[in-house]
Amino acid sequence: MTTTAAHPRFADALTALGLADVTARVRTFPEATRTAAEAAAAIGCELSQICKSLIFAADGVPVLVLMDGASRVDVERVREELGAQRVTRARADVVRETTGYAIGGVPPFGHRTRTRVLADRSLLAHDVVWAAAGTPYSVFPMAPRDLVAHAGATLVDVRERPAG
Asked: What is the pLDDT of residues 47-60, one digit of tens each?
């Protein structure tokens, strides 16, 4: 592990939000942290302490869903929350166009365009969560309530319920 800068756009977003000190806490790893499991293994934290930033298309409009790394998003619950007719995973080109980042490195804020943001309440179960810092190799820690606030997210319950 090394401590190098976040993606330049994300570092600029941190500074604009008055969070330049977070840049010093970004961790960069030689191996990818593209998936929640890879990130948790690299950091040495619980899978649920990873904050996934996932882009969906709600009636064709991009929406960001922040979800803990141990859970899956229930697209039907997202659809109900947004009052949309149809919700699907956004294509990779839409993710990059909307956020300015590639899948596996999308941070929870600092995107190219403004989107609606939903954050699952499961993130609040921890004192600190880790999220992508704009690359598939970098992550940063933040208190979940601060992360939700800086992302401009609405707290919701959109994770899949256990079968049974």
From this structure: 999 999 999 999 99
